[in-house]
Amino acid sequence: MTATPILEMRGIDKSFGPVQVLRQVDFTANAGEVTALVGDNGAGKSTLVKCVGGIYPIDSGDYLFDGKPVTVHSPRDASSLGVEIVYQDLALCENLDIVQNMFLGRERTRGIVLDEPTMEKMASETLDRLSVRTVKSIRQLVASLSGGQRQTVAIAKAVLWNSKVVILDEPTAALGVAQTAQVLELVRQLADNGLAVVLISHNMNDVFAVADQIACLYLGRMAAQVKATDVTYSQVVELITAGRSGDLGLQAAAVAAAGNGNGSHDAGVTDLGDMNGAQ
Amino acid sequence: MTETGTEAATPPPAGAPQPSRPDTGGEPGRGRRVLPPAVARLAYTNTFWIFLVLVALVVFFGAMQPNFISAVSLRSLAADTAPLLLIAVGMTYVIISAGIDLSVGSVLIFSGVIAAKTMLWLGGDGAHPDAGATSAGWTVTLAGCLAGMLGGLAWGLLNGFMVARMKIPALIATLGTLGMALGATYLITGGTDVRGIPLNFARTVGFGLVAGVPWLVIIAVLVTVLLGVVLAATRFGSHTYAIGSNAEAARRVGIRVDRHLIKVYGISGLLAGIAGCLSLAHFTTTTISGHTADNLSAIAAVVLGGASLFGGSGTVTGSAVGLLVPAVLQSGFVTIQVNPYWQYLAVGAVLVLAVYVDQLRRKARSAGR
Ligand SMILES: Nc1ncnc2c1ncn2[C@@H]1O[C@H](COP(=O)(O)OP(=O)(O)OP(=O)(O)O)[C@@H](O)[C@H]1O
Ligand SMILES: [Mg+2]
Question: Which Pfam families match (chain A) (predicted)?
Fold first, then answer.
């Protein structure tokens, strides 16, 4: 395990017009680990992920990759760093087949013509590496796939590249028991292969099943990021619902400030230290 | 810790030379079938069925009236259809991108007028003003065609800009340019057709033959094949399908959706421009009162050819076949002495049916998820 996290977000602020969705958020992800990102509906998980992915520009804060500050303005910037995101809504093209979806935007060409044989080979190898056996043909249209198969294709699309960080936004939300287990196995496998995996989930069983670290957002603030082995199930639930649990999480003043929405920036203190809002 | 992790970085195993043909159906694919994309796509569109319909029609009319398949009637059918083929190809791109272009007929006329006016302006003979530019050379012809094509391209880019950047629904944006291009045409010509284009242009491109095939057809088919390949086998084509299928997904992988759409509408305009030049050569005059139904004919062809009006599917081959069906019906009815107006009824009904089937298929798809 290297000392520097592969991905580190420091003091991230993000507003949509008058609505401040993220306040001084710190977040890290280490290679070879699954970091679960939890929080109630509307806590800002997807927004944080979209900031990481270059979909939304951050208002202020630092984006560090492999310890070095970087600027990410577009999805292209993020993927050239090796950050791949599987969004909550997947965003696959139904009318296109699996290969076309996996290579969308980064098609292999020979001259100006698409290099279909190479793309098929790479897609097939990636699916094999992920031990995906449920897909009959890689030339199947995505429209004909089940929810779990789609999720698999989206994950395969993310790991096909030079990815170092893979972020999955609620990958199991729409899945049944068997398919959930498959996806979680896949998640664990990616981390064991050395990738940094960030998993967003509302399901505590899933979180505790695979996560090495748990980061909890509460109303746009990072309540705590802790080792999964250091906390209990109920502590995490408390962090999610109240922003604190014992001496973990936001201090009372910060909870109140976060709770009334327009509170000042300078009250948040987590167990990880500096959230004093000197901006 | 990274025993196999780095493999993610280098998808094809290093050192193993790639065979030119994938063996993905073999051991590594564990029996996963790999259909060639064209075949897979065909199975999901009704291109194949409309092709069968076309063959059946030709066989039927041929049996009823053997001289139906005579070289001459095929030739004139093809020559008459050539400009519309180009328009349908442009429409294919637009419809696959989940748009529509109603302006094509007006843009065709506008481009023809610009081309003709440019030829007259450059090649007019001061001594015989009535003769127009009939004796002008190829430079004048080429300059005129270039001007006409640029005119078409400009309208197309304007359409694209309005749709992609100003977020005006394509139906309205292109309805607007339909009116504007037509208005501009009438303002330029005062409502009378422009005549007197160079004779060499009309004689060769207009009704000349190469080995028995009209120039018009050769040009239209070459452009069609080129754009068919671009759509089916290049990155540009892939992105067109992706944008029509799920624009947000395309945006998320970094495709510049706005720019791409502007190009797609630009292609449609440019092709209408080329069609305007071909039509000008064929009729030796602009045809400003015609072409009002070109947009509908092209849309019908594209939809009959298996494209979905919701975007994301369709092929150039399909559209070409879809275009031939009404044309074959029309000449077929004439040769077997059935009132050819039945053609409109038949095509209209088939069109509605095609869209209905597409609708059902989409419903079945989302229900089966
Ligand atoms: N584009 C936007 N414009 C304005 N407000 C937004 C936008 N996107 C998100 N928000 C707001 O930001 C807050 C956080 O949303 P976000 O989607 O990040 O939550 P989440 O933690 O992912 O929730 P869930 O668990 O429901 O997915 C919500 O209050 C939401 O209304
Ligand atoms: Mg979310």
Answer: ABC_tran
| pLDDT exceeds cutoff 70 at B20 | no
CB pairs under 8 A between A and B: 163
Same domain? A57 vs A169: yes
- Probe residue for ligand 1, chosen from A9, A14, A19 as the CB with the greatest number of ligand atoms within 8 Å: A19
Residues B158 and B110: beta-carbon distance below 8 Å: no
What is the per-residue pLDDT across B230-272, written as a single tens digit (0 to 9) for each? 999 999 999 999 999 999 999 988 899 999 999 999 999 999 9
Task: Render pLDDT for B208-222 as a digit per residue (tens, 0 to 9).
Answer: 888 888 999 999 999
Cα Rg of chain B, angstroms: 23
A167 and A194 co-located in one domain: yes
Burial class (CB in 10 A: 0-12, 13-18, 19+), B126: exposed
Query: Are A156 and A139 members of one domain?
Result: yes
Select from A161, A178, A197 the last residue of a domain. Answer: A161
Q: Which residue has the higher pLDDT, A262 or A279?
A: A262
For ligand 1, pick from A13, A46, A50, A52 the residue to mutate: most ligand atoms within 8 Å of CB: A46
Does the domain spanning B37-364 belong to CATH 1.10.3470? yes
Residue A4 is encoded by which pair of tokens? Answer: 């520097």
Residues A183 and A264 in one domain: yes
Structure tokens, A209: 């099943």
Show the ligand 1 pocket: residues with CB < 6 angstroms.
A 16, 19, 21, 39, 41-47, 88
| Same domain flag for A173 and A129 | no
Instruction: Supply the residue whose CA is at minimum distance from atom 19 of ligand 1.
Output: A42
Q: Is B26 on the interface with A (CB under 8 A)?
A: no
Asked if the C-beta of B16 comes within 8 angstroms of chain A's C-beta atoms, the answer is: no
Q: Which among A109, A117, A195 is the nearest to B235, CB-wise? A: A109
Is B11 within 8 Å of chain A by CB? yes
**Yes or no, beta carbons of A114 and B30 under 8 Å apart:** no
State the residue for tokens 């038949």.
Answer: B346
Do A56 and A168 lie in one domain? The reply is yes
Total of domains in chain A: 2
Domain that holds residue A147: 91-161
**Which letter, b or e, does each residue of A65-89 get, where b requires 16 or more Cβ atoms within 10 Å of its Cβ?**
bbeeeeebeebbbbbebbbbbbbbe
ipTM of the complex: 0.79
- Quick one: average pLDDT of A86-107? 90
Q: How far apart are CA A251 and CA A264, in angstroms?
A: 13
Q: How far apart are CA B195 and CA B113, in angstroms?
A: 10
A137/B35 Cβ within 8 A: yes
Entry pTM:
0.83
Residue B126's pLDDT band (cuts 50, 70, 90) = low
A-contacting residues in B 240-299 (Cβ below 8 Å): 241-242, 244-246, 248-255
Domain boundaries, chain B: 37-364
- pLDDT tens digits, one per residue of B65-105: 877 777 667 777 777 889 999 999 999 999 999 999 999 99
